[in-house]
Amino acid sequence: MYKISKNIFNWDNMSIIEKINIITSVNNKKCEIQNKVFKILKDVEKHGDVALKKYTLKFDKIKLNDFFVSRKRLKKSSLLVKNDFKKAILMSFNNIQKFHKLQKIKDIDVNISSGIRCQRITTPIDSIGLYIPGGITPLISTVLMLSIPAKIAGCSNIVLCSPPPIKNEMLYAAKICGIKKILQLGGAQAIAALAFGTNTIHKVNKIFGPGNAFVTEAKIQARELVSGLSIDMPAGPSEVLIIADEFSNPEFIAADLLAQAEHDYNSQVMLLTSHKNLAYDVLFYLNKQIKNLSRKEYIISSWKNSKIIVTSSLEESFNISNQYAPEHLILHLQNARKYLSQIKNAGSIFIGSWTPESAGDYITGTNHVLPTYGYAKTYSGLSVLDFQKLITVQEISKISLKDLANNISILSKAEGLDAHDYAVSVRMNSWKFK
Ligand SMILES: NC(=O)c1ccc[n+]([C@@H]2O[C@H](COP(=O)([O-])OP(=O)(O)OC[C@H]3O[C@@H](n4cnc5c(N)ncnc54)[C@H](O)[C@@H]3O)[C@@H](O)[C@H]2O)c1
Ligand SMILES: N[C@H](CO)Cc1c[nH]c[nH+]1
Ligand SMILES: [Zn+2]
């Protein structure tokens, strides 16, 4: 019997520590995960392909001969997936592409003053790794979320990886995105392979993609261990926070909470409402709906990290939400759009009762790779810009350097950097005597 326990709390009655634990996403298992991941990273750095095979056998129960999916298998995937799946993927592809193409930013080219030209040009990041989660279930849609912006940005050297066995549907999604290199690797060992490289796998410059607590920790540690390596963001176990009023539908709210709770043992779902009756109605529907769902263990485990919080006002709900900075924020509010300006921190916002979070996961066009663990305070969801670098350019004419020379000299002397001063004066002197 799977029962959703009564995790209903009154914000005013919670202790300061309880409040801090909520808004700072405290994770009690962090140290254990950190140590485990560090060992895996170091083992792959030292033993390369041998370690990758060992961990794949250990965690995915698969004895790998080749790390890469063959071209033949990738090509064949088109024949092995259903037509309705192809149609659904196509709609998702088109919507994501439409939204992401608009994210391309314009270069800048300006004459700051006569003879002084400044530019900002955009260049794709070369050599990237895309991680697609696949431990609990293969997240086929994540292939589109990562590959489409990468292609729009112009990245050329792309390797995608996911835990084996990789389903035909995932290969098909990769194929329609134009991805050719696919690695059958998952978990921290996959991140290690992308970060350090091995005899058969090239190291990359930036690693993208969501994953469970092990994958996310591996990305964070790899960034520290390998100089020049970047990651997109910490995008760990799924989260949702819902703010609801007395006009909202408790059945819809329960369904939205369960949709994120089913992702992982470590997912976290929260409901904030100033209406106590609504909290109990939602609890009723949670228990009703879980009976018909297949991933009950994940939901029950996630529910231990989750809460329904009764606040004293809508304003207080927004205040808590902004401090918590959820990956997904759903506003089950009447005239929900009018509250948009109150939101300071969230990965992605879902407005009104007819915008289920699952729609954003698959098909609205926005990206579902989003910061978790409170990182929505400083990180944005994935966009085309994450796959590019912005490089500035400047060019000064001979005559215009003269206009700048004196001020450069004053500023460099103020910093005690006479070589900087000389790099200008040497030019001025050569110019004077010609
Ligand atoms: N934040 C986001 O944008 C976002 C988007 C999509 C999915 N997600 C999250 O991605 C995650 C997917 O998780 P998943 O597990 O299905 O797939 P995953 O691919 O992230 O992880 C699976 C791998 O984890 C490793 N692993 C599992 N247990 C381990 C252990 N005890 N020790 C060491 N390694 C271990 C294994 O190597 C396994 O192959 C979920 O948490 C989901 O919520 C987040
Ligand atoms: N909700 C997930 C992000 O937290 C993304 C996803 C993919 N498939 C289903 N859902
Ligand atoms: Zn989801």
Task: Name some characteristics of this structure.
single chain; 434 residues; alpha/beta; Rossmann fold; 3 domains; 6-stranded parallel β-sheet; 5-stranded parallel β-sheet; 15 helices; 14 strands; 16% strand; globular; binds nicotinamide-adenine-dinucleotide; binds L-histidinol; binds zinc ion; histidinol dehydrogenase activity
Summarize the structure.
By secondary structure, the protein is an alpha/beta fold.
Sequence-ordered SSE layout with sheet pairings:
Elements: E1 8-10, H1 16-23, H2 30-60, H3 71-80, H4 83-101, E2 108-113, E3 116-124, E4 128-131, H5 140-153, E5 158-161, H6 168-176, E6 181-183, H7 187-196, E7 206-208, H8 213-225, E8 230-231, E9 239-244, H9 250-261, E10 268-273, H10 276-290, H11 296-304, E11 307-310, H12 314-324, E12 328-332, E13 348-351, H13 357-362, E14 388-396, H14 398-414, H15 418-432
Helix pairs in contact: 2-7, 2-8, 3-6, 4-5, 5-6, 7-8, 9-10, 14-15
Bound molecules: nicotinamide-adenine-dinucleotide, L-histidinol and zinc ion.
